Automatic annotation (TrEMBL):
It comes from Pseudonocardia lutea. Belongs to the ROK (NagC/XylR) family. InterPro entries: ATPase_NBD, ROK, ROK_cs, WH-like_DNA-bd_sf, WH_DNA-bd_sf. This is ROK family transcriptional regulator. SUPFAM superfamilies: Actin-like ATPase domain (SSF53067), Winged helix' DNA-binding domain (SSF46785).
């Protein structure tokens, strides 16, 4: 394929180091790398010549002479990201620093299976990339189920019919001929929340997505916490004692008394009854009721917030986050109603040391939080020196298994 770039190993290492740092001068690059002035100049020239680095301003240098600042050229390539929920997806085309250049929301049913959903994704991605000449570097997908991180395969998703074990990177990698990163949706949102926070972002953050189901993404010590099998943060299927009389509700996963059987959008819809003509309500119907100010729906969502608070109190004791951020469609429509119960029960059930500086709030970034997190996690993997060599040679090889992300 045309446009292949071959970089020296040193230039790839420098490009990797420049991701995630503020712009640097030649002297600062020398200080960080220990390289001679000649080597620094040669590698900077190599990266500038390849269009991967750019001059981005001047600072006062030694002896009062202005020094040129260098940063990664965000326009050297494109990233495509698709943040998929149970009933809709946010798609975006991003630059190499994760800045969103174009976005689109689409309705879909994740239960229709991977062929249908990924087919739609491919179609919409092609539209987002129409008339774009710069090269595509990578694709990232967020999915509402546990993702086995080394392989990018979905594992035993409770609600995603047909997705178990499906090779998402294989399918999209064959279509787009670039590396593909797959992430649990709540993990992507947690990471996006940290990326979008004022510098420095919180190192310990719990993101709770409340949509059709309930999921959590955990950032601990500045990294996404995925767990041994990619199942960390499966808050929706933790057991809660909601303090109610009668038998506990049955969950979609087959167990009973799961948190989302009380607090997920599907459970709220179940309790609000059908639409009057026998058709069952969905989480999207609950969102519409909240937007219309329906008193019954608001009351039911406040009750969901209290059960979320019971579950989150356990998580706060285990993880001691500095922030709990709530997002997803139900939080967007009725966040304050959810927060009231969460605040009440977290404060009552966690130790004061864990809650004294704990902030609990709704995300301020709306639908962008998932796509931004996906783009940054993808870029972190693409800028690994070995992966860079493949990306720049337009190689179609996959990502390095278990490459560190988010640090
Ligand atoms: Zn369950």
């Amino acid at each position: 394929m045309d446009g292949a770039t071959v970089l020296s190993e040193g230039a790839r290492v420098l490009l990797h180091d420049l991701r995630g740092t503020p712009p640097l001068t030649r002297a600062q690059v020398g200080d960080r790398t220990g390289w001679s002035r000649g080597t620094v100049n040669a590698r900077l020239d190599e990266l500038i010549g390849a269009g991967l680095l750019r001059e981005c301003g001047l600072v006062e240098g030694a002896r009062g002479r202005p020094a040129v600042l260098f940063s990664i050229n965000p326009d050297a390539g494109d990233l495509l990201v698709g943040h998929i929920g149970a009933s809709g997806a946010q798609l975006a085309r991003c630059d190499l620093t994760g800045g969103i250049l174009a976005r689109e929301s689409v309705a879909l049913d994740v239960g229709a299976g991977p062929e249908v959903v990924l087919g739609l994704l491919e179609e919409r991605f092609a539209v987002l990339r129409a008339d774009v000449e710069r090269p595509l570097w990578g694709v990232a997908v967020g999915l509402p189920g546990p993702v086995h991180f080394p392989t990018g395969r979905v594992v035993s998703p409770p609600i995603m019919t047909g997705w178990d074990g499906f090779d998402v990177p294989g399918r999209l990698g064959a279509t787009f001929e670039v590396p593909v990163h797959v992430e649990n949706d709540a993990n992507a949102m947690a990471w996006g929340e940290r990326c979008l926070a004022p510098e420095p972002g919180p190192d310990d953050l719990l993101f709770v997505k409340v949509g059709t189901g309930v999921g959590a993404g955990i950032v601990a010590n500045g990294r996404i916490l995925r767990g041994a099998q990619g199942a960390a943060g499966d808050l929706g299927h933790t057991f809660v004692d909601a303090g109610e009389d009668g038998p506990p509700p049955l969950c979609r996963c087959g167990k009973s008394a799961c948190l989302e059987a009380y607090a997920g959008g599907w459970a709220i819809a179940r309790d609000l009854g059908d639409l009057g003509d026998g058709r069952p309500r969905t989480a999207l119907d609950v969102v519409a009721l909240l937007r219309a100010g329906d008193a019954r729906a608001i009351q039911r969502v406040r009750a969901a917030g209290r059960v979320l608070g019971v579950g989150l109190a356990q998580a706060v004791s285990l993880l001691n986050p500095s922030e709990i951020v709530v997002g997803g469609p139900l939080a967007a429509a009725g966040g304050e109603h959810l927060l009231a119960g969460i605040r009440q029960h977290v404060a009552a059930r966690s130790l004061p040391l864990a809650t004294q500086d704990l902030r609990i709030r709704v995300t301020r970034h709306g639908d962008d939080v998932g796509p931004v997190g996906l783009a940054d996690a993808l870029a972190a993997r693409l800028f690994e020196p070995d992966t860079l060599a493949r990306v720049l040679s337009r190689g179609t090889g996959g990502l390095v298994p278990a490459a560190p992300v988010g640090g």
